[in-house]
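Issue 218. Parser rejects a valid record. Input:
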Amino acid sequence: MDKYSSYDDEPGVFPYSPDIDPEPSIEPDHSPDDPHSPDEDHPRSPRRVQGRQKLGVDSIKELGTMQVPEVKSNIHSISIVGQIEGHLVLPPQNKTTKYEHIIPQLVAIEQSTEIEGLLLILNTVGGDVEAGLAIAEMITSLSKPTVSIVLGGGHSIGVPVAVATSYSFIAETASMTIHPIRLNGLVIGVPQTYEYLDKMQDRVVNFVTSHSKITSGQFRELMFRTGELARDIGIVLIGKEAVEKGLIDEVGGVSKAVAKLKQMIADRANNKGVTLQ
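Output the parser choked on:
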């Protein structure tokens, strides 16, 4: 009697076979008995290894979409989101825009022969004053047409960045917070500290007023207004209010911003001597 014969009379019990791999690591695309299995004239397609990422998984993880549409355009867009990070590295849970990443892009835009305009998209809470002013100065010094659009918010030092472009838009529900410069950390209570803070304040005010329709007196009045912000001084302007104050040029969304930028690019191409306001 065979040593496995005792199992033959028991239904559902099968003898152990050492030739069967209980955990195969590779799944064949076709079974050997499949009539459509490839032969020598038709090479077998690559087998899928267990654990290998499928096509498009990285796109879903990073961008939330299977495939990003690739459109060749003469317009380059830059997003200023979260908090503008300056000389100090912010905690990893903060959504930040690093100014050392933005500045090389602006230099490349100026040198590129294929890029003819810049679309700047803002949704920022503010951040480092010097980093924000550095980005704003770079944007306003570009020789190519530039358009900004405030979506969500363009607060604090995001205000100079928003007005640094040749033309600016703000969404109907977007907001902009205007308040005095605030310092974090240890502050030495000496006259030199207050003088430095006052000069920093003047830098922001002079830049904003020279690149928008608001006057210095109006901007300072909004900045030091009491009763508008809880536990602070300043004001929040929403959509149309920012246009009425002369801070932003027009209320509009992405379609208006892109159309305006294309018009400015066409005007520049037709008249190289046109001055952008």
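Fixed in the parser; the record now loads. The chain is about 30% helix and 20% strand.
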